[in-house]
Amino acid sequence: MDSDIIRIPFVNRRFALYIALPKSESALSTLEGEITGENFSDETFFHGYQDTFVNLTIPKFKLSSNMVLNNVLIGMGMSEAFSSAANISGITREPAKMSYIIQKALIEVQQSGTVAAAATAIIMERTSANSLPLNPYNFFANRYFVFFLREDRLQLILFQGKFADPSTKEINFP
Q1: pLDDT recorded at residue 133
Q2: Which of 73, 68, 55 is nearest to 133 (CA)?
Q3: Are the beta carbons of 2 and 23 closer than 8 angstroms?
Q4: What is the mean pLDDT of residues 40-69?
Q5: What is the 3 state secondary structure string of the chain?
Q6: pLDDT in tens, 138-169
Q7: How far apart are CA 82 and CA 104, in angstroms?
């Protein structure tokens, strides 16, 4: 994979934001093919990280999506839930069936570096200059990148997206 990948753990260490930054613009389509293809290796992509100090610069962004999950759930064998034969007596005493199941997802990365998406990151400042590394790794996401919000213990990708603004090929930071 011709990309730099960074893992940013949340405070509880169960959740992490992964950012894959292709080393060149042409590598983006290759990266997208690798992560969406049948040969995608969860083991290769999400493991083997080592803790290190990083000078991290990522743009502020907010993405949200709304998705009707009916067809997905019917495809998984839940068709009865959407029919009059549905037994949802644990939810209501009245005869009912599900009409729609809608998923709304939101991820926001703010300038402070806080990531919000059903979890909160805490940003801490060092109090001693002695703890700063001499040569931190520089990770500047100043072009297209792919990101994942993942629950690492269960190995579940909760949110996946691509930061790509067709009107610009580079993001300028102050």
Answers
A1: 54
A2: 55
A3: yes
A4: 73
A5: CCEEEEEEECCCCCEEEEEEEECCCCHHHHHHHHHHCCCCCHHHHHCCCCCCCEEEECCCEEEEEEEECHHHHHHCCCHHHHCCCCCCCCCCCCCCCCCCCEEEEEEEECCCCCEECCCECCCCCCCCHHHCCCCCEEEECCCCEEEEEEECCCCEEEEEEEECCCCCCCCCCC
A6: 888 877 888 888 888 887 878 878 887 645 44
A7: 20
Q: Which residue has the tokens 């072009």?
A: 143
Q: Which residue has the tokens 């644990």?
A: 90
Please state whether the predicted TM-score (pTM) of the whole model is above 0.70.
no
> Using one digit for the tens of pLDDT, what is the confidence trace for 7-39?
888 877 888 888 888 887 777 777 776 666 565
Tokens of 155: 């190995």
Q: What is the CA radius of gyration of the chain?
A: 20
| Cβ contact 29:138 at 8 Å | no
Answer yes or no: are the C-beta atoms of 42 and 154 closer than 8 Å. no
